[in-house]
Amino acid sequence: MASSYGLHSGYFHPTLRKWQGGAGTTIAPHNLMLPIFVVDDEDGIEPISSMPGVLRMGINTMAVFLEPLVAKGLEAVLLFSVTNILKDDTGEIGAKPSNPTVGAIKRIKRDYPDLLVAVDVCLCPYTISGHCGVLKDDGFIDNGRSLIQIVKIAKSFVLAGADVIAPSDMMDGRIKAIKDMLQTLGCMNRVSVMSYSVKFASAFYGPFREAAHSAPAFGDRKRYQLPLASRGLAMRAAKRDEVEGADMLMVKPGLAYLDIVREVKDRHPELPMAIYQVSGEYAMLHHGAAAGAFDLKAIVMETLTAMRRSGADIIITYFTPQLLDWLMEK
Ligand SMILES: [Zn+2]
């Protein structure tokens, strides 16, 4: 069953059109999406010890950092907020202009207007609990209240100029609620929705939690992320998000879940498919190469080729800066 939100949101931008190109195992710059952690201090630059070579940046630092990458062919980024602005129980600050990601979207659209700007939308950067939704007294997520907050944040990113909204909490109703908001705003044909539709409760996320300061204050995310062994739920999650109107689907993490990628792609061949090569995968390959176990370029290219072979059109990877160099060497 297809959604009723129309098709134009899937191909209004040149990079989106390339993602509709279909199968293949080659790796080109348009297959890569670079995650960026945006901090409050506009001139900030913070190394992340668990992810050597990856930085948290303020918007000025980010703008300088992006210039050579854009020159080498970078086409897409995925922004994450890392803010220390006053948090609360409902993530109210996420939708405020002081959210550093709002400034980052505007800056990229000013300096690099052709770059496709995707933005992660979740409540965990903005809630005191660090959980991805508003919590009820019993500790369960209040889905209705969480949806209202998620949509408010997504709307502020859209108004700042985001091309792709990427809700990442794996919960019910996100895609439809964001699509309804886009319809109301009259932005249906200029904003895509990329769902983190199939997101497992993985140990590979460890380094990201340091990078984004996003570890929950208590408990874990197993009530909303998928059990590691689940295939049936993974397929239901992808189907749910296609029905709700997602323009693209995603499986996260990548390497340990390529069987799921292939199955989702086979069941949803109409939708571009993303893999998030997550922080733990980055750290594993980086440290393995640093320890002499294998050559970094060879192992990263092999891993990404396997991801393409399994059905990924888009690979979200912290190796994007190196990959742009390696692709130019070829
Ligand atoms: Zn979250």
From TrEMBL:
Listed pathway(s): Porphyrin-containing compound metabolism; protoporphyrin-IX biosynthesis; coproporphyrinogen-III from 5-aminolevulinate: step 1/4
Enzyme class, UniProt record, top EC level: lyase
Binding of 5-aminolevulinate 2, residues: S279, Y318
Cofactor: Zn(2+)
Any one of the GO CC terms: cytosol
Biological process (GO), any one: protoporphyrinogen IX biosynthetic process
Catalytic activity as recorded in UniProt: 2 5-aminolevulinate = porphobilinogen + 2 H2O + H(+)
One Pfam family it belongs to: ALAD
Keyword flag Metal-binding: yes
SMART domains: ALAD
Similarity remark: Belongs to the ALAD family.
Known function: Catalyzes an early step in the biosynthesis of tetrapyrroles. Binds two molecules of 5-aminolevulinate per subunit, each at a distinct site, and catalyzes their condensation to form porphobilinogen.
NCBIfam families: PRK09283.1 (NF006762)
Name of protein: Delta-aminolevulinic acid dehydratase
Organism (species): Tigriopus californicus
Highest classification ranks of the organism: Eukaryota, Metazoa, Ecdysozoa, Arthropoda, Crustacea
